[in-house]
Amino acid sequence: MRLPKDWPRPAPGWCSMAWTPNASRSAPRPLRAKGHHVEEAAFDVTDEAAVCAAFARLDAAGIEVDILVNNAGIQLRKPLVELSLAEWDKVLNTNLTSAFLVGREAAKRMIARGRGGKIINIGSLTSEAARPPLRPTRRPRAASRC
């Protein structure tokens, strides 16, 4: 993760959240190397109870999320006619519902603090220029930019 030189530097208390424990371990290294304090919380971003519990743990530890980057996304490499409803639901839940759930919980706290914050939703270039096998599952990623 590289931050632009002119990016506002929040107070200590960066928070890296990831869908899987392994994914969260590498992202904070560059920030820690620069002396930032980083807290990690691994949880399933598609599970409302897990998202709420993760934010409750952050609240209990006195950790405030100032900047949230929603970057969860998956793609299934198969034609539309071969996708099951369960697979489609998994794509929607990961690419759209997770941004809603995590964004909602972060926004509640940002608003309550009265200082606001930043929520950044990351999309994929393939949402606009997907090759045929990726087209069906890229639509939800495109919708996440709305």
Features:
single chain; 146 residues; alpha/beta; two-stranded parallel ribbon; two-stranded parallel sheet; 4 strands
For the terminal residues, how far apart are their CA atoms? 24 Å
Helix segment tally: 6
* Estimated structural class: alpha/beta
Across the major sheet, the strand order is 1-2
Strand content: 5-15%
Sheet with the most strands, sense and barrel status: 2 strands, parallel
Computed Rg: 16 Å
Number of strands: 4
- Shape verdict: globular
Mean pLDDT, as a whole number? Answer: 76
Low-confidence stretches at least 5 residues in length (pLDDT < 50)? 7-22
Helical residues, percent: 40-55%
Give the H and E element order: EHHEHEHEHH
Descriptive overview:
The chain is α/β, with parallel strands linked by helices. The protein is built from six helices and four strands. It has helices at residues 21-26, 29-33, 48-60, 85-113, 126-129, 135-143, and strands spanning 14-18, 38-42, 67-70, 118-121. Strands 1-2 form a two-stranded parallel ribbon. It has a two-stranded parallel sheet with strand order 3-4. Strand 3, helix 4 and strand 4 (118-121) form a beta-alpha-beta unit. Helix 3 (48-60) runs parallel beside helix 4. The longest helix has 29 residues, at 85-113.
